[in-house]
Write a structure and sequence with these properties.
Elements (H helix, E strand, L loop, with lengths): L5 E4 L6 H9 L4 E5 L5 H14 L4 E4 L30
Parallel strand pairs: 1-2, 2-3
Length: about 90
């Protein structure tokens, strides 16, 4: 059986020394978890990784989910049967 190594890069591992060491050890792909990466940070992160290695990069988007990091007061309450409209604002 052949095994391939996937390494998730995050705040503590996104540095040149770690990426280059993983590349030397035969990592198959580097993963960026989009659930924990701001959209405006994706391109600069990829550019940074590309400066250090040519190993493929996987962008992991878990799928259709609603994420709201800037909710006023940190909470929102819904009543049973209440209709909710969600709007995208950029």
């Amino acid at each position: 059986m052949t095994h391939k190594i996937l390494v998730t890069l995050g705040p503590s591992s996104l540095n040149q020394a770690f990426v280059e060491e993983c590349s030397k050890l035969g990592v198959y792909v580097f993963r960026i978890n989009l659930s924990h990466t701001a959209i405006e940070d994706v391109a600069p992160t990829i550019e940074k990784i590309r400066q250090w290695t040519d190993i493929p990069i996987c962008l992991d988007s878990e799928g259709a989910q609603l994420r709201n990091q800037k909710m006023i007061g940190g909470r929102i309450h819904f009543l049973e049967g209440e209709k909710v409209k969600i709007h995208h604002q950029s």
